[in-house]
Amino acid sequence: MSYDWIIDVLFWIAVVFLAAGYVSWRATRLDRLHVRVETARAALDAALVRRAAAALELAASRLLDPATSLVLATAAHEARTADADNREFAESDLSRALRAVVDQPEFASTLAERADGEGKAVLEELSSAAAKVAYARRFYNDAVSQARIARRKLLVRVLPLHGRAPLPGFFEIDDDPPGI
């Protein structure tokens, strides 16, 4: 009696299990990448809100002239209330407004005249918030890039392992920090 057919069946069972394990691993990795994108987006949103709050605090601190305070407060408010389609533009406008405020020639002297330290605290908060926005955006765009690379793989396209998850998009803003 020949038992060669048993070896053949066991071989094909092993191949099916290995293929199923690989597909499962790929799907899990893709899911983890999507979770990473969502987490990075939440961190980016929090950093953007913190920067807008710091800009509003600077606008209300009486360190600036009324017209500059109004421009900065308007840009910060628009950044906080922008819808998803206009968020990148509003955040870029806030970045430009912050740089315009900090780059004013009398800004440094006005800050130096404040003996109570309030001006320095506001600027340190703003500087910290602006730096965190830059880092959060880089982390988010890196996560998006990795998720997009994983979704371009042939196996993911043939067997739609991404499910109903939308293709994540990059978040591009002018996030050069003000020269504080």
From TrEMBL:
Listed InterPro entries: LemA-like_dom_sf
Instruction: Give the transmembrane ranges.
Output: 6-25
- Which keywords belong to this entry? Membrane, Transmembrane, Transmembrane helix
Protein's recorded name: LemA family protein
